[in-house]
Amino acid sequence: MIIECTCNDGFEDQLTAANQYSIKEFGSNSVLIENDKGQERWYGNLRFEIKFA
User: Fold this and answer.
1) Cα-flanking dihedrals φ and ψ of residue 2, to 5°?
2) Which one, of 10, 12, 47, lies nearest residue 27 by Cα?
3) How far is the C-alpha of 1 from the C-alpha of 11, rounded, in Å?
4) How much is the pTM?
5) What is the tens place of the pLDDT at every residue in 2-53?
6) Is 43 exposed, middle or buried (0-12, 13-18, 19+ CB in 10 A)?
7) What's the CA gap between 39 and 11, in Å, rounded?
């Protein structure tokens, strides 16, 4: 599944607004993605919009 970052506030060094990321795992209120630094990190669902299922 592909998601698009809609809010990178506070994480400007890790996420790029309007950039698309592939979900590696779902949590209850978060997703695990590989950020712009190549690190796998959890981020809240509210920062993203689903683009492709």
Assistant:
1) -110, 135
2) 47
3) 22
4) 0.92
5) 999 999 999 999 999 999 999 999 999 999 999 999 999 999 999 999 998 7
6) buried
7) 13
